[in-house]
Amino acid sequence: MRNYCIRVATPDDLDGARVVMLDTVYRDFGTGYVPRWHGDIVDPASAYLAPARHTLLVAVDERDASVVATAALDSRGPLHPPNPRHVAERYPSGVTAQLRRVYVRPEHRRRGLARRLVSELLAFAAADGGYRTVYLHTDPAVTGAEAFWRSLGKVVHDGREGPGGGESVMHFEVPLER
After folding, report:
1. Secondary structure letter of residue 106 according to DSSP
2. How far is residue 134's CA from residue 126's CA, in Å, rounded to a whole number?
3. Structure pTM?
């Protein structure tokens, strides 16, 4: 059985975290790196380590000290566009903790890492005291993503439903426990 250490990322973890994130956007999402969507991946220090109300967590495999999973939180709500107006209005920046980059390498999945990382992010958000809600969006085409997030929160908008149904993004709210 493998042991993992979950911790706040340090500058020494950023290269490993960046590799996990980039591998995910290429392999799982099939989009590759898109600057307007993935700028935080290239510069995670500015996005998550520098701002006091943001954080980046990593799961490190204790066998070889490699970063095998990431999870981040920031205080930026979803923007309209590209997100629906009612979603952007419901989750304003500053009071919304947005979960981002909850990614686990395929060979380390099904071991509870994502759930542990999200639990730590929720504790971070609660300790901050300034967040009213926790929001995230996910691509339901990614294996396991929809079921995982449904187990933790509630769907507030499913882009596959309604007129056009062309957006394949699901928007979730996760309870903020205090």
Report:
1. G
2. 10
3. 0.95
